[in-house]
Amino acid sequence: MTKRPGLFLTLEGGEGAGKTTNLRWITQRLDQASIPWVATREPGGTPLAEQMRGLLLQASPAEPLSAEAELLLMFAARAQHLQQVINPALAAGKWVVCDRFTDATFAYQGGGRGYPVADIAYLEQLVQKERRPDATFLLDLPLDHTAARLDQRGQQLDRFEQENQAFFTRVRQAYLARAEADPQRVHVIDAAQPLEQVQQQLAQPLDRLMAAWQAEAH
């Protein structure tokens, strides 16, 4: 008997949107439902992909990263992540909960950097084949909230976090355009709300997904 594959969930959003906190909350819900899971992130998720993450996030004034190199590093890390972590876990019947995936590439490299969307879509198909998230939770945060939350972190900003407001405006617009184009998959969550209300919004689609997946087992 073939094992029923797991579901692939992704969390998306700009800086300071609360992805890490809410990913942890989602995995707690999965535990309560006795659903096996793997939590991971992009760029990264494997030792080699984490090295690529370091190259992507560390600013190097001596040799700035070109837009093409940035995009290709993103997909190189993703190819490794899919092969080593995501696809094997899903095939084993585990749910995969990932902090960012390809929607982030369309938002940051496409929207933010202005890289042609057609080129990103080509690489998406090349690297992922038919693999796409089953559901995506877009934690949408207005830019004034983003700046305030980054200040609260009190830590050194990475190469993306140091970008200007115009960049983050384009990122947010690209994310919302992705959501509008695929409303069945992308659930937009108002991340400016108190955490309890954010998680109430997350619970509705998540509970439906869990109930449907568990019903298929019987």
Automatic annotation (TrEMBL):
Keywords: ATP-binding, Kinase, Nucleotide biosynthesis, Nucleotide-binding, Transferase. CDD domains: TMPK (cd01672). It comes from the Bacteria. Residues 11-201 form the Thymidylate kinase-like domain. GO terms for molecular function: dTMP kinase activity. It is an enzyme of class 2 (transferase). Its EC number is 2.7.4.9. NCBIfam families: DTMP_kinase. This is Thymidylate kinase. It comes from Marinospirillum alkalitolerans. The lineage of its organism: Bacteria, Pseudomonadati, Pseudomonadota, Gammaproteobacteria, Oceanospirillales. The gene is tmk.
